[in-house]
UniProtKB/TrEMBL annotation:
PANTHER family: PHOSPHATIDYLINOSITOL-GLYCAN BIOSYNTHESIS CLASS F PROTEIN, PHOSPHATIDYLINOSITOL-GLYCAN BIOSYNTHESIS CLASS F PROTEIN-RELATED. GO terms for molecular function: oxidoreductase activity. This is Retinol dehydrogenase 11. Residues 1-21 form the signal peptide. InterPro entries: NAD(P)-bd_dom_sf, SDR_fam. Keywords: Oxidoreductase, Signal. It comes from the Eukaryota.
């Protein structure tokens, strides 16, 4: 005899799964099958989460992929993992890049320039998120989120701009819809004076979006296309510094409906890197494999200011 409760449990589970499937269908999938033979791609933070999935997919499409990771060891093991998962024997180039050190960014770019003369796809993906209470700095003394998520990529992109221009390449900036909660206060960034519990991660993601807009303007004539994306809420190690086990109980129900796998979270970046119909678009923000209307208000003047100040910060360190 089946217990009557079983009659309730099964439909409930089916309903929950149906809701999850419905949500998944809204997240967007990169549907094109564009092959990337002969193309060179570079992915920062390619050893984990979204970056790993992007690197794997680009390699599956036959691009040569530079895996730029915080240590050579991580890059190497990421390359080994991808090779094992794919059957097309891809060319993967593991390299060391620490975005929290401008010297490392410079050294890395010089090595890339020695090996390659063009880049077709640059994915600025790496990022950190620390608890709000923590006030950390990069090797060069910049606020950690701003320094890693924005400034390191700012410098990297500028150093590699000529290679991307040669490839008439695309640059994908992995931002976040959390940028809508961010603030961009250049003075506070310079003086490292932030209000208590201010969301420095969100601020850095706002800087990412501003950077994408400004770089799109500045590189348009060179044939470079720039796409800022929000991957959605994705199950990765990003929040490992603030995560406690009991959060699991609290977020599990919400996560079940809202949290994407790393592969699902990589779709919009892959879409922007490959989609032929985006060929003439630059400087916009995307989410769920389509254009996204940000709730934030953007000021052109602030975009220029951020650019100039970022340049000054780099100049001060890399005299
Ligand atoms: N997960 C989400 O819900 C979500 C939502 C919106 C946006 N995003 C964005 O998605 C991007 C990827 O994050 P993820 O979720 O995939 O998290 P993740 O699994 O933690 O991956 C982050 C990657 O960035 C690398 N990284 C961190 N600091 C670095 C540094 N100084 N130099 C070089 N690489 C560094 C990490 O390397 P290590 O392994 O060495 O730490 C790792 O490979 C980030 O930009 C994040 O802001 C994520
Ligand atoms: C992009 O612009 C070029 C030149 O104007 C045009 O020939 C091409 O069809 C456009 N591509 C797309 C996908 O709109």
């Amino acid at each position: 005899m089946i217990h009557p409760i079983a009659y309730c449990i099964l439909p409930t589970i089916l309903l929950l799964v149906a809701v999850r499937k419905y949500r998944e269908s809204k997240w967007g999938k990169c549907k094109n099958k564009v092959k990337l033979d002969g193309k060179i791609a570079l992915v920062t933070g390619a050893n984990s989460g979204i970056g790993f999935e992007i690197a794997k997919e680009l390699a599956a499409r036959n691009a040569q992929v530079i895996l730029a990771c915080r240590s050579l060891k991580k890059a190497q093991s990421s390359a080994d993992k991808i090779k094992k998962l794919l059957f097309n024997n891809p060319t993967l180039v593991p390299m060391e890049l620490d975005l929290a050190s401008l010297k490392s960014v410079k050294l890395f770019s010089e090595m890339v320039k020695e090996k390659f003369s063009e880049i077709h796809i640059l994915i600025n993906n790496a990022g950190v998120a620390y608890p709000k209470s923590q006030r950390l700095q990069t090797a060069d003394g910049f606020e950690m989120h701003f320094g890693t998520n924005h400034l390191g990529h700012f410098y990297l992109t500028n150093l590699l701009e000529s290679l991307v221009a040669n490839g008439k390449g695309r640059v994908v900036v992995v931002a976040s819809s959390l940028h809508e909660k961010g603030k961009l206060d250049i003075k506070a960034i310079q003086s490292l004076e932030f209000e208590d519990r201010e969301n420095l991660y969100a601020n850095s993601k706002l800087a990412n979006v501003y950077f994408a807009q400004e770089f799109a303007k500045r590189s348009k004539d060179k044939g470079i296309k720039v796409y800022a994306i929000c991957p959605g809420w994705v199950y990765t190690s990003l929040f490992r510094y603030s995560f406690k086990w009991y959060h699991l109980i609290m977020v599990a129900p919400v996560a079940f409906f809202f949290m994407r796998s790393a592969k699902q979270g990589s779709q919009t970046a892959i879409y922007c890197a490959t989609e032929p119909s985006l060929e003439n678009e630059t400087g916009f923000l995307y989410r769920d494999c389509k254009k996204y209307n940000s709730k934030a208000i953007f000021y052109d003047k602030l975009a220029t200011e951020l650019w100039d100040e970022s340049q000054n910060m780099v100049n001060a360190i890399m005299k």
